[in-house]
Design brief:
The chain is α/β, with parallel strands linked by helices. 39% of the residues lie in helices and 18% in strands. Helix 8 links the parallel strand 7 and strand 8. It is globular, with a radius of gyration of 19 Å. The structure holds guanosine-5'-triphosphate and magnesium ion. The site of guanosine-5'-triphosphate has 17 residues, from helix 3. Guanosine-5'-triphosphate binds next to helix 3.
């Protein structure tokens, strides 16, 4: 396993406003700060988009399909990835980039499946960015026609802003979190290609209105697909695999032949 330790990265490329706001400036200068923040954020995102385009071109040239999996902490990203790897690795190579602020715990869980994995630790950063993916791709060097699963840092806010060069953005929510997540975090649902509602095995025990949640997601993003599943029991997983196949540059069946 390769590990990318990237704790200082956020200071250079992140959009953390704390770095722009200087409390030592005198009062007369403070009216300038909002403009500075907007310009810097635009520059950060423009630079990110350029590297994301590079990643996209690089991966498409190799038939690599990258999916960016985003959710709040604990919604079940790593569980879903591990089960998906075990199912799909018979059909095509699967590689993983694991994003977390600290630890290699998720990378260890993925490594147990036999898939190649790189851990990216963001330190204080709350999301992965395109340059982290660029570096991780060099370390990982996925096989041609791989499925590349990217687990973003657990967070429903910051990851929405950053294009990584992926083919698809997947937003995962789980039933114990409540069905109001699309309402409360609209930006990430607006950019999603797929919403996965996970932990449906817990529906008898939690208050979660699946229809209301789906309806709200579709108000924000009429074209979005929704898959309802349990990464633990496996219920509903076939629809997830079908979506991955339909979203791939090269379908798993074609790779198998
Ligand atoms: N009941 C149930 N539990 C699940 C399901 N999927 C995941 N879990 C449990 O939820 C907890 C968190 O799962 P993870 O896969 O670690 O979640 P994560 O989104 O990767 O978490 P972070 O990486 O910390 O953001 C674990 O205890 C899992 O066993 C599910 O479908 N049903
Ligand atoms: Mg995880």
């Amino acid at each position: 396993m390769s590990v990318v330790a990237d704790g200082e990265h956020e200071q250079e490329h992140g959009h953390g406003h704390g770095h722009e706001y200087d409390h030592d400036h005198d009062h007369d200068h403070q009216h300038d700060h909002p403009d500075h923040i907007v310009i810097l954020e635009q520059q950060v995102l423009a630079k990110n988009d350029g590297i994301a385009l590079h990643n996209r071109v690089w991966m498409r040239a190799r038939g690599i399909t990258a999916l960016n999996i985003m959710s709040s902490p604990g919604a079940g990203k790593t569980t879903l990835l591990a089960r998906t790897i075990r199912e799909l690795e018979r059909q095509r190579p699967v590689a993983v980039i694991e994003g977390d602020q600290e630890t290699r715990l998720d990378a260890e869980r993925i490594r147990e499946t036999g898939a190649s994995v790189v851990q990216v630790n963001t330190g204080a950063g709350c999301h992965l960015d395109a340059e982290m993916i660029d570096r991780a791709l060099h370390a990982l060097d996925p096989a041609a026609e791989s499925l590349l699963l990217i687990e973003n840092v657990g967070n429903l806010v910051c990851p929405a802003l950053f294009d990584l060069g992926e083919e698809g953005k997947v937003v995962l929510i789980s039933t114990p979190e409540g069905d109001d997540k699309p309402k409360k975090y609209p930006h990430i649902f607006a950019v999603a290609d797929l919403v996965v509602i996970n932990k449906i095995d817990l529906l008898p025990y939690v208050e979660f209105d699946v229809d209301a949640c789906v309806a709200q997601a579709k108000i924000l993003n009429p074209a979005v697909r929704v898959v309802v599943l349990s990464a633990t029991t496996g219920e509903g997983m076939d629809e997830w695999y079908e979506w991955i196949g339909s979203h791939s540059a090269i379908s798993p069946v074609a790779v198998d032949n």
